[in-house]
Amino acid sequence: MASDPPPPAGRPPASDDQAARARAAAEAVYRAESRRVFATLIRLLGDFDLAEEALADAFRAALEQWPRDGVPANPRAWLVSAGRFKAIDGIRRRARFVALDDVAEQVEAIPDGAPQWDGEDIEDDRMRLVFTCCHPALSPDAQVALTLREVCGLTTEEIALAFLSTAPTLAQRIVRAKAKIRDARIPYQVPTPAELPERLDSVLRVVYLVFNEGYSASSGDSLTRVDLSSEAIRLGRLLVELLPEPEALGLLALMLLQESRRAARASPTGELVLLADQDRSLWNRAQIAEGSALVERALASRRFGPYTLQAAIAAVHAAAATADATDWSEIVGLYDILLRAEPSPVIELNRAVAVAMRDGPAAGLALVDAILGRGDLQDYRLAHAARADLCRRLGDAAQARVSYERALALTRQEAEQRFLRRRLAELGEDPEPDPIGFGPQDLPY
User: Fold this and answer.
1) For residue 425, what are the contacts with CB-CB under 8 A and spacing of at least 6?
2) What is residue 323's DSSP assignment?
């Protein structure tokens, strides 16, 4: 086996401790910066797969060189440059399989390494990547899968688990989306002002879906996925900085207000804690203040839409010092406006829960039964969970059991499953007049 190359002349070998620190630094940079570096490599190389390969090569080089030479002053720029050179080397190595003119054209198309890629450049590249992944030429499912894979860095297995699909199905969806971007020559850029409304809607939708999966994981043993919700909030901040449109403000406000309750939403053992039972001293007041201010800015524009209205509902909850102090009349009124702006059986369900909190469980149950009676939300676990708790509060244990069992059969999130089993076990006891188990603000809209 060949020995390791000697250190550069005049440079002493790195100690084991120095090498370990450098390797740890490289791993930390990978976790924090890999998707930013990847976005810039896509701009430089013009190809998803080539950029992915260059990214892996750059980090392999970092693991080899940083323990020996030390961590560079600007790790991002070092990795971008290393990835660029590795890609060029790879193209040249493959030269024997393609025409020389093609190789020269590929290499010449890659910008030179003179510029120093700073943080602002890389963040602009990430926004370009977001808009590319969310291009309206791609199907909505492909937009979500591609964004989670290429912008957020999730594996296909993680995406498949989050959205209850199979890894091969997700992998094919991502491959087809990349091929469409390549074949249709979809530009890697932020859209023009004329294109912005259509393109922004797609991006906001994808960011919203990513956040919802992080706020309440659809499956697995953890109630939340902080990596997804944090990534969605970071993308929301980028959107607001670049495009301070009212609905971008509203979406960021909604995410911050929902995320502010993270520390209180689960017990130390991972059990679900309902909104009414949460320790509000654990709520993040800085996120509440920022989110509330963003809501006011968006509402003041008078050009707001569904995200802003949902954020306004979240702000009402955040403003209540106790659960009993919640202004349910205001929340019902906001849901009335939201339903007119975006008719949806899920929003209608959330409004029914709010009505139950304002007018009593019988009023809410009538509305929920009307939704289910139309055939809507039959496979939506929260509809059956909400109905079960309304029946429980009305003392109808038999109907509560039927709905709890249906909700449990549809639930793949383990903390929710445990909660529903506890409710089923409690049905023999006298129901307490506590708030609804699954309702507005406990889970996504």
Assistant:
1) none
2) G
- Cα 335 to chain center, whole Å? 24
| Residue 250 pLDDT > 50 | yes
Dihedral, 182, 187, 189, 195 alpha carbons, nearest 10? -130
Tokens at residue 46, please? 């013009």
E-state strands within 208-326: 219-220
Query: Number of helices and strands (H, E) in the chain?
Result: 19, 2
- CA neighbor of 418 nearest in space, from 222, 228, 275, 212: 222
pTM: 0.73
Question: Whose structure tokens read 């070092």?
Answer: 78
pLDDT digits (tens, 9 = 90+) for 188-197: 877 777 777 7
Give me the phi and psi of 413, to 5 degrees please: -95, 125
Cα distance between residue 178 and residue 194, in whole Å? 25
H or E element at residue 189: none
The answer to whether residue 430 scores a pLDDT higher than 70 is no
What phi and psi, each to the nearest 5 degrees, are found at residue 219?
-155, 170
Q: Which residues contact 309 (CB under 8 A, 6 or more apart)?
A: 250, 334, 337, 338, 341
